[in-house]
Design brief:
about 50% helix, globular, 6 helices, Lambda_DNA-bd_dom_sf, 2 domains, Cyanate hydratase, Cyanate Lyase, Chain: A, domain 2
């Protein structure tokens, strides 16, 4: 018996197949009828896929069942520390470092003592045209969870 392929290895094969087949992440998300950001996160190893989703992705990308098996595993969520220096990821860290305390204060003012869930959560990304250069719009949509004593 062989071990199940690590999620990171499966992710590398998915990315390579997607590029070689000239498919967009949107194409893959549409194929499995899943939200775009969730689909990409799942294919990069951050969420488990259902057996049906994994099978459809593998069929679309001509990947074998070992990849599909890995895509169904529960993940160890998080990020490779080496990725934290990537300019795109670093800018999100920078934005939260600068605006996080203000966002926290505003959440508490509007909702009371609690947090925004990152489990009961949706995230979306879109492009907005702007004469000074296109804008990236990222929406975090998390359920408010109040602290209960």
């Amino acid at each position: 018996m062989t071990p199940i392929m690590p999620k990171a290895d499966a992710a590398e094969l998915v990315v390579a197949a997607r590029i070689r087949k000239k498919l967009s992440w949107s194409d893959i998300a549409a194929e499995i009828d899943a939200p775009l950001v969730w689909c990409v996160a799942a294919l990069l190893g951050q969420h488990p896929m259902s057996a049906a989703q994994a099978e459809r992705v593998c069929a679309l990308l001509d990947l074998d069942a070992a990849v599909g098996e890995s895509l169904q595993l529960q993940p160890a969520r998080g990020i490779d520390p080496a990725m934290l220096s990537d300019p795109t990821i670093y800018r999100f860290q920078e934005a939260l470092a600068v605006y996080g305390p203000a966002i926290k204060e505003l959440i508490h003012e509007e909702f009371g003592d609690g947090i925004m869930s990152a489990i009961n959560f949706n995230v979306d990304i879109r492009r907005r045209q702007d004469p000074d250069g296109d804008r990236v719009v990222v929406t975090f949509d998390g359920k408010f969870l109040d602290y209960r004593w």
